[in-house]
Amino acid sequence: MIKFLDLKAINAQYQQELKDACSRVIDSGWYIMGGELEAFEKEFAKYCGVKYAIGVANGLDALILSIRAWKEMGKLQIGDEVIVPANTYIASILAISENGLIPVLVEPDPETFNISPENVRAAITDKTKAILPVHLYGLISPMPELIDIASNHNLLVLEDCAQAHGATILDKKVGSWGNAGAFSFYPGKNLGALGDAGIITTNDIKFAKIVRALSNYGSYEKYKNDYKGVNSRLDEIQAAMLRCKLKYLELETENRRKIATLYMESISNPNVQLPKVFDYENHVWHLFVVKVKARKSFVEYLRENGIETLIHYPIPPHKQRAYKEINERKYSITEKLHNEVVSLPISQILDMSSVNYIIEIINKWEGN
Ligand SMILES: *Cc1c(COP(=O)(O)O)cnc(C)c1O
């Protein structure tokens, strides 16, 4: 069976280094907010090309605390509107509603699946205060255009970078375009911890300080609480794991690009629609997503041939019970996508002979 994602094999590549790092933390006797976190934050900020990176407990908290910090700074308030793609993982939208702001869902560009600047422009009202682009599947959103719109309308930009560590446009990485970027290091992401972790990137020192305080009980100074904060910290063990793995991220992304290129050049079944790629360097291929009308039989056929696939995602956020107040809304591009997408295996360690086998099996499929 070709697994969709083999986390054990991914981390086994660096087994000794990860174990050594773990021992280093155990032996240090310091487990929260110590040297590993401080070093990782510096290394990750440098990697992204920003001044500050603030570790938090996970990607959802990175999004929630960024918005929360802007509320504390008086830049956002309850009831403000935030424009977000309708076809995203639900976390992007939860972060907005959790803060008492209004998610304004917009249809994606049907070619790239990413947020459409045209639809963003059309959705702007007097209450719009921010845009939350999601670099879905590893493809960076059209940031130059979005930044332009944001500066014309005085909007904040929060990038959801959970699927796109290291993706660039014009040599500028995700997380360095907006006012802030939120990353997840969930184990299956391109840069994955061995547990939960997340980080916020920014060039705004005031924002950075508030986010840090919010993630640590609203406190700048021990036992003094300036905000009603939360406990959302990136612990030393995970920071140490991430420091090891960050070193190999670029190399690993290269393997994803090789696989994606092979898929793009060799899948020739007319019933399997390939993603549109305009520039390979802008993409870090967190997922390789094709569209197939007869999805059920395609997935079944691949499974019978020993190939595991997943669907990202089967139900759009506006159709979830959690958002029953907007279940009746119609986002037809988003809904069609959710009915047709299939994610093929891709990872930093998937080998080319498996990829060639997957291509051969797909090209033999006679369904439609
Ligand atoms: C994974 C993911 C998140 C959330 O990250 P967690 O670390 O699981 O909280 C947010 N947004 C997107 C687009 C994601 O894929």
From TrEMBL:
Source taxon at top rank: Bacteria
Catalytic site positions: 189
UniProt keyword annotation of Calcium present: no
GO molecular function, one term: pyridoxal phosphate binding
Keywords: Aminotransferase, Pyridoxal phosphate, Transferase
Record-listed N6-(pyridoxal phosphate)lysine modification sites: 189
GO biological process, one term: polysaccharide biosynthetic process
CDD domains: AHBA_syn
InterPro entries per record: DegT/StrS_aminotransferase, PyrdxlP-dep_Trfase, PyrdxlP-dep_Trfase_major, PyrdxlP-dep_Trfase_small
Family: Belongs to the DegT/DnrJ/EryC1 family.
Record-given protein name: Aminotransferase
